[in-house]
């Protein structure tokens, strides 16, 4: 069972306009069982190298404008680092549309299209709601009837519940939050800072 409460200190790593405060855990490391929950959840989608020597976790919401802005940054870091394994944590915090989008994205795994669907949802301009999510799914050739049936699967509810529990236990303040090793970043950051976060984790 993971630790229910961790003490976090919040220190600004950049001016307030950059909205990129740094979250640092006291004690300099996460408890092993907690780190395992974050990095090795078999029910979480993986990007990059599944056998990589570094793991980056992102908590995100499809209706978070900064999550959308970070998608090309994330892709650039993944492309530049063949040893990077990235864990995606669907954390829908912006209402019912976000919950629908998260459930639909997770359900798309049954059709082998999670990565494409994830990027398409992040790239769309409208707010993610039932109608816009299904429109994106249809445009990609997904079977939307199967998608909606699969959205009720227990593994999908479990993933979202786990994201909520992990975020609450760590005191996360919002999306996107990136975690690597024992450090993390919140908000829109540069590819350089994201790569540095990953590089530092290799020494943890």
UniProtKB/TrEMBL annotation:
- What keywords are annotated for this sequence in UniProt? Disulfide bond, Oxidoreductase, Redox-active center, Signal
Q: Which residues form the signal peptide?
A: 1-24
Which Pfam families does this UniProt record tie to the protein?
Answer: DSBA
> From which domain of life does this come?
Bacteria
Note whether Cytoplasm occurs among the keywords. Answer: no
Could you tell me which residue ranges the Thioredoxin domain spans?
Answer: 8-203
Q: Which Gene3D superfamilies match?
A: Glutaredoxin
Q: What name goes with this protein? A: DsbA family protein
> What does UniProt list as this organism's lineage?
Bacteria, Pseudomonadati, Pseudomonadota, Alphaproteobacteria, Rhodobacterales
């Amino acid at each position: 069972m993971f630790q229910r409460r961790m003490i976090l200190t919040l220190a600004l790593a950049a001016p307030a306009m950059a909205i990129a405060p740094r979250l640092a855990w006291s004690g300099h490391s996460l408890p092993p069982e907690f780190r395992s929950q974050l990095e090795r959840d078999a029910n979480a989608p993986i990007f990059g190298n599944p056998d990589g020597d570094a793991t980056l976790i992102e908590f995100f919401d499809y209706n978070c404008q900064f999550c959308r802005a970070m998608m090309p940054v994330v892709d650039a870091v993944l492309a530049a680092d063949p040893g990077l394994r990235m864990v995606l944590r669907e954390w829908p915090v912006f209402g019912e549309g976000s919950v629908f989008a998260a459930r639909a994205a997770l359900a798309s795994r049954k059709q082998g299209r999670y990565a494409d669907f994830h990027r398409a949802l992040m790239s769309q301009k409208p707010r993610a709601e039932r109608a816009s999510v299904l429109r994106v799914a249809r445009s990609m050739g997904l079977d939307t009837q199967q998608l909606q049936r699969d959205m009720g699967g227990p593994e999908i509810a479990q993933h979202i519940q786990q994201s909520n529990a992990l975020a609450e236990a760590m005191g996360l303040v919002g999306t996107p939050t990136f975690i690597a090793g024992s450090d993390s970043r919140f908000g829109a950051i540069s590819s350089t800072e994201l790569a540095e976060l990953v590089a530092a984790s290799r020494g943890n």
